[in-house]
Amino acid sequence: MRKLIECVPNISEGRDEAKIKAISSVVETVEGVKLLDVDPGKATNRTVITFVGEPEQVIEAAFLLIKKASELIDMSKHHGEHPRMGATDVCPLVPIANISMEEVAEYAHKLGKRVGDELGIPGYYYENAATKPERKNLATVRSGQYEGLNKKLVDPNWTPDFGPAEFLKAKTTGATAISARDFLVAYNINLNTTSTRRANAIAFDIREAGRIKREGDPLTGKVVTDTNGNPMREPGKLKAVKGIGWYIEEYGIAQISYNLTNISITSIHEAFEETDKSAQERGLRITGSELVGLVPLKAMLDAGKHFLRKQERSTGIPESEIIKIAVKSLGLDDLAPFNPNERIIEYVMQSESPKRLIDMTLTEFADETASESPAPGGGSISAYVGALGVSLGTMVANLSAHKRGWDDRWEEFSGWAEKGMAYQEALLRYVDEDTNAFNKIMDAFRMPKDSDADKAARKQAIQDATKFAIETPFKVMETAYNSMEVMKAMAEFGNPNSVTDAGVGALCARTAVIGAFLNVKINCGDYNDKAFVDDILKRGNEIQEKAIALEKEILEITESKI
């Protein structure tokens, strides 16, 4: 559940490979940040750099990149086709996972302040980080480009949001625009035609800008103009979409190339389906599609769930299966294999992280537990047993959703399966979190105790770690108990052929509650806040009693149906 943001700085250098390498490589010096792509353009004399990570690390990497670019790029000597006003021309931050746009805007402001204060580079916030409505649009912010900065910086209407309002320093660095913006997806759809004209016609149907309005024939008719003589347009079907048709010689087909500028407004699957409708109306069909670059996990899960719902199938299935449905439904493997581990941002980041317990095979996990190391221990095992229990309940829900004769109840059981998967995912997280809690205690005990200050800091760290080691198994207790609602429902009215699976799930959940409570109790003995200890033990006893009673109730239902 890490917060992840992407950063896509555009630097005003696209020809000198040594400079591009020196600037982009500073990103990799920040631990936890993954450099995803470096895309130079000679004609534009501009390079787009993409990296991702947790917010603090990303803005540290962005700061270092802006600093290095300001040292190596002299804007007074820069020429290129693309509009620009600074060595690091733009630096957008993009929410990827578990973070809101408002939070990302705060990080954009934090980065900008540091760039202005420490580097003396002036700049402006735009899009969702804009401090004024008139600065929201990048084209407006960048108007006048580098050549107009001398006058712009001293214009009261264009006082920089950060950095000095003078041109002396900016003569070589220019100004930087920093933003928080939505994720942009480059998405191509393949057609069973070689006609660029027909591909363009579909693109014009779909893209927000639509097409120029004409009298009679939409291709050759007279252009319709407004009272000022400007061409009028017929808007397309979808918002936040740019698109054009082209012929790809490598594949021998025509494609529609889309930029989905806000996938919370128009998703990948919406663009696909509307394009499919328009293609069929024109006697064409889609053969597949391709994503250019990386994509957030949520976009793939949304697509997979959309197509599952259309099939009236349960969406409460493992993440990997949802992604498989998305890939096949969108035809993302039409031109080349689609590897989720290489194309989904969160999976790429996960591959860079240390191996988690839940990534082990069953044998590896059992062997690790049986080894001489004290962790993973009873807390992690309790969380895992709880995950197995609710997995059984979820299985019954999915089997019920597909039971012959119960087709009209698929949504009901899909809802229960989704609940089950949410409980399962939480409990799997706690498998590693409980071991991390133990490691925090060990780290605290290893802290120096030479001085009185050291001793005080060590004592506080031990207490903080102990509290975390109490709260983690307590969360296991709560989650495992709450998950029993799935098993009870499935025992009562789920697929009767699988009622014993619901019963076994209840047994596992009860075990997880009691096992986790043992960890809560033993760790409470080392915590000094008596009021906290008394409260959590009281609540823990209540959860344990309710779990035992509910297990008995579920088993009675199960036995009655065998």
Give the arrangement of secondary structure elements.
Layout (H helix, E strand, L loop, with lengths): L3 E4 L2 E2 L5 H9 L8 E8 L4 E8 L1 H18 L15 E10 L3 H19 L3 E5 L10 H4 L7 H4 L14 H7 L2 E5 L4 E7 L4 H11 L4 E2 L20 E2 L6 E8 L4 E8 L7 H14 L4 E7 L4 H14 L8 H12 L9 H4 L1 H8 L9 H9 L7 H24 L8 H36 L6 H42 L5 H26 L5 H32 L1
Parallel strand pairs: 5-7, 6-7
Antiparallel strand pairs: 1-4, 1-5, 2-4, 2-5, 3-4, 8-12, 8-13, 9-10, 11-12
What descriptors fit this protein?
562 residues, alpha+beta, Formiminotransferase-cyclodeaminase, Chain B, domain 1, Alpha-Beta Plaits, 3 domains, 14% strand
Q: Can you describe this structure?
A:
By secondary structure, the chain is α+β, with helices and mostly antiparallel strands. It folds into 3 domains: 4-180, Formiminotransferase-cyclodeaminase, Chain B, domain 1; 185-350, Alpha-Beta Plaits, CATH 3.30.70; 354-561, Up-down Bundle (Four Helix Bundle (Hemerythrin (Met), subunit A)). It is 52% helix and 14% strand. The chain has 18 helices and 13 strands. It has helices at residues 17-25, 55-72, 101-119, 138-141, 149-152, 167-173, 196-206, 268-281, 297-310, 319-330, 340-343, 345-352, 362-370, 378-401, 410-445, 452-493, 499-524, 530-561, and strands spanning 4-7, 10-11, 34-41, 46-53, 88-97, 123-127, 176-180, 185-191, 211-212, 233-234, 241-248, 253-260, 286-292. The strands form 3 sheets. Strands 1, 2, 3, 4, 5, 6 and 7 form a 7-stranded mixed beta sheet that branches. A hairpin with a 4-residue loop joins strand 11 and strand 12. Helix 1 packs antiparallel against helix 2, helix 2 (55-72) runs parallel beside helix 3 (101-119) and helix 14 packs antiparallel against helix 15 (410-445). The model has no long low-confidence stretch (mean pLDDT 93).
